[in-house]
Model the fold of this input.
Amino acid sequence: MEIQGQAGEEVATGDPARAESLAAIQGQVLEAEPVDDAQGGGVSGGMPIDPATEAREVIRFATTLFFPLYPSLERVYTEARQEQLAMVSAPLMQKYGLSMGTIFERWGAEINFALVALPLAKETAAAVKHDNQQRKEAAAREAKEKEASANANQ
Done:
């Protein structure tokens, strides 16, 4: 399955479920509402930001992104731990004026890059590992064949 990149280019993912998940996240990144600084850090429209809700949204976004890539993280980031992380993150988000909107406004391009690059990096690492293993096995077979040939000639 393919995901449309920001400039319309297609990015192969190999896993249809992951592709749909990443496409949905990428859509959220591209459609994130900017923060209206004139409203004192509220979201456009003058709604005040609840730091705990914003922290939960950031964590939900991150887990939605990383769980398909690293399924073992689901055991680590349980609902209870996500809530605990949100509660301790909320004061920091408030202190530094962060919300989903400001995060995407400030780092949207980087997040979009990560949405495409992280799956590719994982697949690249697996492909390189596979190729290295194939070379190692081929070299071992070749060495055995040479040894067998040398022993047969003696």
About this structure: Confidence is low (pLDDT under 50) at residues 1-13, 34-45. Residues 29 and 140 are 48 Å apart (CA to CA). The chain has one domain: 2-152.
